[in-house]
Amino acid sequence: MTTRPSKRAPDALRPVSLERNVARYAEGSCLVKFGETHVLCCASLEEKAPGWLRGQGRGWVTAEYAMLPRATHERTRRESTSGKPSGRTQEIQRLVGRSLRAVVDLRMLGERQITVDCDVLQADGGTRTASITGAWVALHDCLAWMKARDMLRGPALKDHVAAVSCGIYRGQPVLDLDYAEDSEAQTDANFVLTGSGGIVEVQGTAEGAPFSDAELMELLRLAKQGSAELVELQKRAVA
């Protein structure tokens, strides 16, 4: 069996924590940590829907994603100073938004929008999966804030959603890659799953040799196990 850099078992997550109410002014917030990857997720409510949704009687949930300049080993330039977000940033924030909308009944929001900002404070692999997992907690608390003020038409949150990375590292399928593994992985995949086990999205790429059907199914098995653990942590966090 291949020894992982972190000495974890192949099916072991990094230590994960979900700390709520960390941003004073946000309707919902969560500081999520997957090992040394730390992401601040803040949910903000706006009393209007996007222009293209006006008059339809339903709301919207979206997300924005960014990495702080020293989230990585060397400083990276703020994207705000370059004029537009990178392709990677746009892809990740769209993924986070899709993942959250998969478990929200938008009709219950009325003509309002919730934006979840995911800011990476420190990156060590898996920033998008940590963002999705923490964003759900921030969204949950924002919806609870709305419910306490009789702003919802009915139950808006249909299920949990969490995400985790899997990959093939030195021939071994493993769960929740950190940067040391991600940078060398033969296959890298991200799985977004609901609390009931439904698949929202799968992103998988072979970095070298193509992976087999059997390897894909093993990665999915690991992801389902890891996602179930993350959902349990979400449940404890919001209990």
Automatic annotation (TrEMBL):
Enzyme Commission number, as recorded: 2.7.7.56
One MF annotation (Gene Ontology) recorded for this entry: 3'-5'-RNA exonuclease activity
InterPro entries, A to Z: ExoRNase_PH_dom1, ExoRNase_PH_dom2, ExoRNase_PH_dom2_sf, PNPase/RNase_PH_dom_sf, Ribosomal_Su5_D2-typ_SF, RNase_PH, RNase_PH_bac-type, RNase_PH_CS
GO biological process, one term: tRNA processing
Stretch list, region Disordered: 71-90
Reaction equations catalysed: tRNA(n+1) + phosphate = tRNA(n) + a ribonucleoside 5'-diphosphate
Keyword Transferase assigned: yes
Ranges annotated as biased composition (Basic and acidic residues): 71-81
Superkingdom, taxonomy of origin: Bacteria
UniProt binding sites for phosphate: R88, G126, T127, R128
Domain (Exoribonuclease phosphorolytic) ranges: 13-142, 161-226
Keywords: Nucleotidyltransferase, RNA-binding, rRNA processing, Transferase, tRNA processing, tRNA-binding
Family: Belongs to the RNase PH family.
Subunit structure: Homohexameric ring arranged as a trimer of dimers.
Functional summary from the UniProt entry: Phosphorolytic 3'-5' exoribonuclease that plays an important role in tRNA 3'-end maturation. Removes nucleotide residues following the 3'-CCA terminus of tRNAs; can also add nucleotides to the ends of RNA molecules by using nucleoside diphosphates as substrates, but this may not be physiologically important. Probably plays a role in initiation of 16S rRNA degradation (leading to ribosome degradation) during starvation.
Name listed for the protein in its UniProt record: Ribonuclease PH
Organism from which the protein derives: Methylopila jiangsuensis
Upper taxonomic lineage: Bacteria, Pseudomonadati, Pseudomonadota, Alphaproteobacteria, Hyphomicrobiales
Encoding gene, per UniProt annotation: rph
